[in-house]
Amino acid sequence: MMDLMTDNKVHDESRQGEAYAPFANDPNQYKKKFYIESYGCQMNFSDSEIVASILNSAGYGATRDMEEADLVLLNTCSIREKAEQTIRKRLTEFRKAKMRKPGMLVGVLGCMAERLKANLLEEEKLVDMVVGPDAYRTLPGLIVEAEGGQKSVNVLLSRDETYADISPVRLESNGVSAFISIMRGCNNMCSFCVVPFTRGRERSRDAQSIVAEAQDLFDRGFREVTLLGQNVDSYYFVDEKSNETVSFANLMERVALISPDLRVRFSTSHPKDITDEVLHVMAKYENICNYIHLPVQSGNTRVLQLMNRTYTREWYMKKVDRIKEIIPDCGISSDIIAGFCSETEEEHQDTLSIMDYSQYDYSYMFFYSERPGTLAARRYKDDVPEDVKKRRLQEIVDKQYYLSLDSNKRDVGRTYKVLIEGESKKDANAWMGRNSQNKVIVFAKEQYDLKKGDYINVTVTDCTKGTLLAVIEK
Ligand code: SAH
Ligand code: SF4
Ligand code: F3S
Description:
Layout: E1 32-38, H1 42-57, E2 60-62, E3 71-76, H2 81-100, E4 105-109, H3 110-116, H4 119-123, E5 129-131, H5 139-147, E6 152-154, E7 177-181, E8 183-184, H6 195-199, E9 203-204, H7 207-219, E10 224-228, E11 236-238, E12 245-247, H8 248-256, E13 263-267, H9 276-284, E14 291-293, H10 301-306, H11 313-326, E15 331-338, H12 345-358, E16 362-367, H13 375-379, H14 386-411, E17 415-423, E18 430-434, E19 440-444, E20 455-463, E21 468-472
């Protein structure tokens, strides 16, 4: 799993930034091999695990070595222009691999496939397949077509596809934490955002299948699940058999009840939808983590209106108060956009001051990047000069640096229950894990017989901006 806490920096590409290539999952079991790289948000990483499962059934096993792959896939992101540029560069590198191995097929999946559709085949000659996020079930057929020399495209969006029955193949897993996709698409139409166009209408996955997946993960030794969606708080499922309706709060409770040893997290919450009901369920169950990602985007009401976020500065502040009231030790993080269309210096100052007010533990910070077809691109001028955008972003980043450091300093001397995720990257004699608030904690193994997936109480002794350093509580 990506290290979210040390990721507290400018994200010019995507939330999770780096691409990854999966483990070979017993490759000899399969006749052919695929290689997949994922970009963008957690949803995309989770989708790649669904794709892996579909490909396994079609006789393709995963490999980490692109050179030996028969099929090379890029699961792409369109959120900002820079993300698309990174992917184009990567495709150029694939061209060389394809020259060495002419039979190799190249497929583009995900949001960029959806946005550019068949145009991608024109623009990127080496691409054989373009497959949108709701069309992964058709991959085996599309591969056969492409093997026959016919370029193939399926970018149909669906109103009901949730891949509920597909058991994801956990690709780059630490064996402790896993993502579970609970809904797809987004109906929110924030004016800057391309996601509603690339992922289609919002739909919620069958609650039973989500709980069953979480139970299966727990039985296999996993100890933490993150319920994923672009807007998890609007999860809503009606069970046709029992006529029962399931809200996000109900769903979270059901997952939490699997075992007190299974931690439950979720991402992302739109501030407008996070209800008291959700906050009370979080407070009630110790294993539902006290951490909320609550993207503010801007601290100014006029800009928020232009962004179509549907809340004001004051409303957001009250939401933060409410969270702290119901869950006093709740960690809060944010997404922030600098230099949105027509943003003034005073309005930018409002963003800096709402950061102070909310005391974010960390933030993902971006400068505005106009995306074709979005409401903002059609209606507003992208008129804040690039150097001004970058300067404002730097001020936001600097502010967050101090907020993160302060937040970590306040934790020194406190004791936290940590779920061990693995060895520290820097020190084989230390464990790395997270507390409920999603902060990374590193501590010496000492003489104790601990392993990945164990819980242990530690006391924080020191910190950096991104990490808490601790000792095992005696
Ligand atoms: N569904 C999630 C966000 C997904 S996109 C949510 O609503 O919280 C992740 C973040 O990328 C957004 O929160 C926003 O801060 C940023 N982002 C989206 N479109 C952008 C754009 N056009 N320019 C810059 N940042 C953008
Ligand atoms: Fe984009 Fe807004 Fe939907 Fe998030 S809630 S995915 S920012 S439209
Ligand atoms: Fe990117 Fe698509 Fe996610 S645009 S952020 S991969 S939903």
